[in-house]
Amino acid sequence: MSGKVTVTLRENEGIRPLIASPSYRLWTVAVLLVTIVALRQPAVLAGTAGLFLFVMLCCGISLRMILRRMLLLIPFGASAALFIPFHTAGRPAFKVLGYTATSEGVERAVVLLLKLAGANLLITYLIAVTPLFVLIRSLRAIGIPAIMLEMMSLLLRYFFLLKEEARGMSKAQRSRGMKTSGWLWNALTYKRFGQLMGALFVRAYLRSQRIYMAMSARGGFEGGRSVERLAETDRTVPVVEVKAVSYAYGNIQALKGISFDIAKGTKVALMGPNGAGKSTLISLLNGLELAHAGEVRLYGETVNRSNEHRLRRSVGVVYQDPDDQIFSATVLEDVAFGPRNLGLSAEEAAERAAEALSSVGMLEYKTRSPFELSYGQKRRVAIAGVLAMRPDFIILDEPMSFLDPRGRDELQELLERMHRSGLTIMVATHDVDFAAEWADRVLLLKDGKLLASGTAELLFDDELLTQASLHLPRLARPFRMLQGAEDLRPRSVKQAAQLIWKLMNRGGEYAKETGKPLEGDRIAKP
Ligand SMILES: Nc1ncnc2c1ncn2[C@@H]1O[C@H](COP(=O)(O)OP(=O)(O)OP(=O)(O)O)[C@@H](O)[C@H]1O
């Protein structure tokens, strides 16, 4: 599964924009660009470029940054301008290798270069003082179609994610001795660089696959068709029935004939070591993949190509990395993406999105760019994106990963609230402590097989835990060290406190009976 990717868009810290409103800024730059295109006099163009440079320096944009941006464009402009003096009719000015340059040609080349420099300065100013996603949003104000902006926003977002991945990989390589400084690399460095590029390509491919899955899961490729929802379901029909299901990726058998049911309103922890088949099972439960053998039944219906879209309406999946799921320019738009795909109007979708954001405590961030959020906040937005589709069954893949302790507690509370609102929830997790405290039901997978299925009591079975590469919940460990208390299985801090209290009382009774205090070897022997 992918690691956390941090996207930095705050390249412009310490820079003061001259015009506060991004859309006014955009309009001003657009008007100035048109003016530059219209100007013909080299002296006026040079004066204008000088003025822009002065203003940019006053705004706090460093000369280094300006030169770096200029160097990106000027070589292209210069190579085009190089030929103009020799291809323009007029008074001969000088000769190079037998070719005659004209004065008019030289002036045209200078005008072109000055125009390019002026335009480049303006765009550098705009990019330096405006975060890219604010810029994209402002483009809407000048009439660029929403679909184009969505695409730009998506492309930009993944460009940055890949850039961050490349940076992370390169850092990791450098920390292991790869040297990339200087112009002349040795053969090994070139080889390592090639490997890095290859790995980046594979990562880009895998990420695009995950994005595709996350978008499909929210109905992104159904063209906003209004698909009927499932009728109100009978509580007695299991939400999920998995019967002898197998699935393979080519020769790799990911699931090997597994069977289980999930009743409505259950809190399920799907656990197992890496490569056990959890993510594969999730794709099958959401109808994104179909079983190669056996059947997956959702609300009593076998999932097949003809009903997968309809059934998927009732099953929401929150993927592990929120960066795979979130892509719109604002938080509200992103959460409204799923409802829009359900065929709802823009107003209805926005209403639902606001409601979902409120339920995850993120309503106040609705106009922000998802890029400006912390990882935990992005995860909440990703959950809201799925809740807004009002599923009956929600699956979360590793929701606790990369969250700080407070973030974990808050997420657990959110899961409880979601459950109280009537949802059936499945969480794929490696976190035994969370699963022991939260789950009503535990499914243990290993090597594509169902190792065990039952209550959270399974998480106290040493043999099973060893087989599933899990460990005993931390709260239960001290009790294992106390003679006479080994069988006590607290699943929450509260239960652990109650059990400790009981043990203390037991100690008191012993002292009363025997007239001796309880010491070491009876109960309190670690
Ligand atoms: N796209 C793929 N192509 C080939 N094999 C795959 C692919 N995805 C998964 N597998 C294989 O299928 C098996 C199950 O993988 P899966 O990702 O479902 O496990 P998982 O339990 O989710 O693992 P983890 O906890 O590491 O995320 C593994 O052996 C894995 O190598």
Automatic annotation (TrEMBL):
InterPro entries: AAA+_ATPase (IPR003593), ABC/ECF_trnsptr_transmembrane (IPR003339), ABC_transporter-like_ATP-bd (IPR003439), ABC_transporter-like_CS (IPR017871), ABC_transpr_CbiO/EcfA_su (IPR015856), Co_trans_ATP-bd (IPR005876), ECF_ABC_transporter_ATP-bd (IPR050095), ECF_CbiQ (IPR012809)
Topology of this chain in the membrane: Multi-pass membrane protein; Peripheral membrane protein
One Pfam family of this chain: ABC_tran
Residues covered by the ABC transporter domain: 240-472
CDD domains, alphabetized: ABC_cobalt_CbiO_domain1 (cd03225), EcfT (cd16914)
Cited Gene3D superfamilies: P-loop containing nucleotide triphosphate hydrolases
Keywords: ATP-binding, Cell membrane, Membrane, Nucleotide-binding, Translocase, Transmembrane, Transmembrane helix, Transport
SMART domains for the chain: AAA
PANTHER family found in the cross-reference section: ENERGY-COUPLING FACTOR TRANSPORTER ATP-BINDING PROTEIN ECFA1, HEAVY METAL TRANSPORTER
Function of the molecule: Probably part of an ABC transporter complex. Responsible for energy coupling to the transport system.
Family of the protein in this entry: Belongs to the ABC transporter superfamily.
Protein name: Cobalt ECF transporter T component CbiQ
Species, as recorded: Cohnella yongneupensis
